Amino acid sequence: MSKQAGLPVLGQDDVACCAPMVREPLGEEAAAELSRMFKALSDPIRLRLLSLIASHEGGEACVCDLIGPFDVSQPTISHHLKVLREAGLVGSERRGTWVYYWVLPEALAKLSALLEIPAASAKALA
């Protein structure tokens, strides 16, 4: 039998193996930040708004383009957009009389990294 060390398996290092929640407990500050984001996304209108903004041509959407798909008033849409902005999920900029919104990629990366649990780890948690 050979005494050579086994070959490393690509993609199996400790850093890439597990989501932060599985590797170690979340700290207080990280948990507070992530919970604000998840709380903002817990409303179906806000989740749809985020999806509409993210999928809009050019990566940003005018508030005027976000009102039509919903059966709620413009002030209600503005409230939901404010919640998304305060949660750090979208950025905004006033251009003339309209406000434009775009998704903040670093916020989505944080959410994604937290939820990215490999199948083997998910089975172990079940």
UniProtKB/TrEMBL annotation:
| Any one Gene Ontology molecular-function term assigned to this protein's record | DNA-binding transcription factor activity
PROSITE patterns of this UniProt entry? HTH_ARSR_1 (PS00846), HTH_ARSR_2 (PS50987)
Instruction: Tell whether DNA-binding is among the UniProt keywords.
Output: yes
Give the record's keywords alphabetically.
DNA-binding, Transcription, Transcription regulation
Pfam families listed in its UniProt record? HTH_5
Entries under CDD domains matching the protein: HTH_ARSR
* All copies of domain HTH arsR-type, residue ranges: 26-123
Q: Output the PANTHER family linked to this UniProt entry.
A: ARSENICAL RESISTANCE OPERON REPRESSOR (PTHR33154:SF18), TRANSCRIPTIONAL REGULATOR, ARSR FAMILY (PTHR33154)
From the Swiss-Prot or TrEMBL record, give the protein name.
Answer: ArsR family transcriptional regulator
